[in-house]
Design a protein that fits this description.
alpha+beta; Beta-Lactamase; Arc Repressor Mutant, subunit A; 3 domains; five-stranded antiparallel β-sheet; 17 helices; about 50% helix
């Protein structure tokens, strides 16, 4: 910014004129500082880019402004943000005319280098081309100042600031002003890309957590709920055994509630506070159904990084105290080469218990069930019904059906 603040006035210039130049320089300095702030604001809130681009155009002496990316092979361009260009021409540019845009050769120039159309192609040849005749000329554009923001073998992104007939071709003053802005635009674009990646990663993690059948709640040391997956949100919305009270996790059981709060505070100390395996607490719904809440610390070892990222000190997994049948029982069938009837008997043993109950459930004689159980023992290598239950448990999935 030094070239906006340094003033070298010859002694012959009258004092009033020198004072006027000082005022103009200060105003230019303030305008530039404000504009740079707008650019970085747009990096954090993409909806602000059109306004920031409009202000960039005003500052450098251009009208239509766009942030674009171009495929180096197909030559097609994607206008990501723009201002000052009729939407119809934005659409035709993306669909057709970008293929004829001389900007395709921009990657041959350095990143942040200001390049006008006459530097990309002889100007007389440019005016005879389809891009000028069909896209530039109908809008009154005669030139553009372009600068590559980032490039790779397959694509590149750039900023383009169009000049109207009234302004003429890109001049030295426009280059000077644009050179002050382009480095900030480039950094803002890169910052925005990092934010986009982080948001995508966060969304991916959230989708994964929502796919769990168990309720998952991330908790801060004061009991504040930092995040809850879909299953936990359903439990909290029901307001039964698990509740959200002013943003803090509570339960319907005062004794368990105290144990939970103690575990949240203890989780700050990591494994030393509540143990590497955490603690398990019983919960009972109003219907009498039983649940188990398992509290795991997030503030030690590799988990410390996750805890810091989410400002959470503990994770609570809540699930019904019952054995879930596998989501894909055919896997068990194929693994142990069971018949469909043997699989039905196996799943019934898990669901209802002993041979008499299974016989009633399936509507067959107990002797038939005993025969199938014997074959199950032979094929699985087990010799107790309890072992068959454990076998099925090993194939259960934590994912929601």
């Amino acid at each position: 910014m030094s070239d906006l603040t340094e003033l070298r006035c010859p002694p012959a210039i009258p004092r009033i004129e020198r004072r006027s130049r000082v005022v103009e320089s200060l105003q230019g300095e303030e305008m530039l500082t404000s504009l740079i702030g707008n650019i970085y604001d747009a990096a954090l809130d993409r909806s602000l880019w059109p306004d920031a681009l409009a202000r960039i155009g005003d500052f450098v002496g251009g009208h239509g402004v766009g942030l674009l990316s171009k495929d180096s092979l197909s030559k097609t361009s994607t206008p990501h943000y723009h201002c000052g260009v009729d939407p119809h021409y934005v659409r035709t540019y993306a669909e057709t005319h970008s293929k004829f845009d001389p900007a395709a050769t921009l990657p041959f120039f350095d990143v942040e280098q200001i390049v006008s159309f006459p530097e990309l192609v002889p100007y007389d040849e440019f005016r005879q081309g389809r891009f000028y005749r069909e896209w530039m000329q109908p809008q009154g554009w005669v030139d553009a100042a372009n600068a590559v923001l980032e490039k790779s073998v397959l694509s590149f992104s750039f900023i383009s600031i169009l000049r109207s007939e009234s302004c003429g071709l890109v001049d030295d003053e426009m280059r000077r002003r644009m050179a002050l802005i382009v480095p900030h635009v480039r950094r803002a674009v890169l910052i925005g890309r990092v934010i986009d990646l982080r948001e995508a990663e966060t969304a991916s993690v959230a989708d994964t957590l929502d796919g769990l059948s168990a309720g998952l709640v991330l908790i801060a040391a004061d009991g504040r709920i930092v995040h809850s997956n879909a299953a936990a949100s359903d439990m909290l919305n029901a307001g039964d055994f698990l509740r959200s009270n002013s943003g803090r996790l509570t339960t319907s059981d005062k004794h368990v509630d105290k144990l939970l709060n103690d575990s949240f505070a203890g989780a700050v100390d990591g494994d030393a506070g509540i143990g590497v395996k955490g603690i398990a607490l019983p919960l009972t719904a109003g219907t009498g159904e039983r649940y188990v809440a398992h509290v795991l610390p997030l503030t030690s070892g590799a988990r410390r990084r996750a805890g810091t990222a989410y400002t959470a000190t503990a994770a609570i997994f809540v699930r019904k105290a019952a054995l879930e049948t596998p989501a894909a029982p055919e896997v068990i069938l194929k693994t142990f080469k069971l018949t469909p009837t043997e699989l039905r008997v196996l799943l019934a043993i898990v669901d209802v218990g002993g041979i008499p109950e299974v016989a009633v459930r399936l509507g067959v004689a107990e002797t038939t069930v005993k025969t199938h159980v014997k074959r199950l023992f032979e094929k699985t290598g087990k010799n107790r019904q309890a072992d068959l239950v454990k076998l099925v448990a090993g194939f259960s999935t934590p994912l929601a059906a």
